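We close this part of the discussion by returning to an individual protein. The encoding preserves chain order, so positions in sequence and tokens coincide. The sequence in question and its structure tokens are set out directly beneath this paragraph:

===
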Amino acid sequence: MLFYHSQSFMNLNRNNRQHHVKLKTVFFTAALLSVVTLAWVFLIFDRNLYCLNHHQSSHSVSSIFPWEPTDSENLVNRTSLPASWKSNGSYTRRDLKMRHILFGIAGSAQLWPFRKEYVKLWWRPAEMRGFVWLEELARDQENELLPPIKVSEDVGNFSYTNPAGHPSGIRIARIVQEAFRLNLPDIRWFVMGDDDTFFAPDNLLEVLRKYDHNDMFYIGNPSESHSSNTYFSHGMAFGGGGIAISYPLAKALSNVLDECLERYPFLFGSDDRLHACISELGVPLTKEAGFHQFDIHGDAFGLMAAHPIAPFVSMHHLDEVGRFFPGYSALDGLHRLANALRTEPGSFLQQCICYDRRNKVTFSISIGYVVQVYLYVLLPKDLGRPEITFKAWNKKDGRGEFDLDTRSAIKSRCNKPLLFYLDTINHQGSDVVSTYKLDPSTVRRRWRLLCSSIPPYLNPVQQIHISSKPMTEHWYKVPRRQCCKITYVKGYELGITVQHCQRGNGRVT
């Protein structure tokens, strides 16, 4: 009995010890989990606190790159937009008006008395805002038909070491900065150009409406000449063709431009300096095919007769490209082009193609400029390439000298087209009606060379009458070449209707 009780007591003690061990294990495990949890929580919050403190104090550390801002708060201020521009739905791209664009026209006091005639062709004093920036006061200082003149700030303290260029490149590069610092209200875009740039304001407005002015945009186009792009950059907007800079990018530039310019004393001009500083901000070029630097010499006919399928925005070097119409001076020809542009901006220089399949005749129309009549079939693939009637900026004319799709000049004079140049253009109801008169020298050339005969119905034609519709808003978003068809031949006049391409229209079958 005693043994039984002793054995029972021993078993009880053993059970108690095991129970205590289990309790200790539970408590130890719970304590360990608590410690681990607390350590994890402390680690997370401590890391966030470290990151926050590090972010707040990072401005005290020198930046590796001199163009990086050293103050995070200053960075926010540099890229912030006017309060009324915040994403509240009050602004849309379609509500962009001409008054939201500030033009900066680079010129020189010496040339301004002559170049101002180019600006008069497109400037609208009642609608547009901008300034002509000169290095000093010029004769004919004020003119109500022209933008006001401003004298640029002195740039004598900036370094310039390029032996082939001119320090005026620094002054012109700073126009966007000086224009921004005028702090004019309701400006969304800054558009730079030269005093010999011919702008199409309505088409420029439609192009800019494609982009959100709240973002950083650098819009333009490289040169037509390969050597120019190779020397400067294939990703640089050439200023003579026009450069559009959105407000946020102009704001960022205004804070860093002077410091940036000091890093590039060896560059040639203004465009490459502006491009270098925009590159430091990480903003690439947005290319728009309608901006034309016209880095060419000679006859621009080939480029004008085969414009890209894009709205015409600008052209440059008006002193270099010769006469646009036979029998007219360069300036008189520009007046005629300007009238066509005002009448129907979207269609201006847009190419239309149609065929007389029975007689194997090709009609290529550049609306507002010229109609070419080829007495053989020339396909759209070839017609869309500008014929080389000009030379590159280095005065060479090989196809490899151009950074655009070209075709060689027609060698056989019998294969050259009959040319009908713009005579009149106006609105008739909802249509745009234009007439083009025959250049008689193109017929006399065929007679002298005893070329093949002209189809009988074309022999008496002295004028081509074209009826078209204005371009729609949709075309600016999704451009497409239009087609045409011959509608009548009456005595000395041939009629053509321009329309949207349909099945079989504009094709050779």
Observations:
- Residues 345-499 form a domain with the Cation-dependent Mannose-6-phosphate Receptor; Chain A fold (CATH 2.70.130.10).
- The two ends are 123 Å apart (CA to CA).
- The chain has 14 helices and 19 strands.
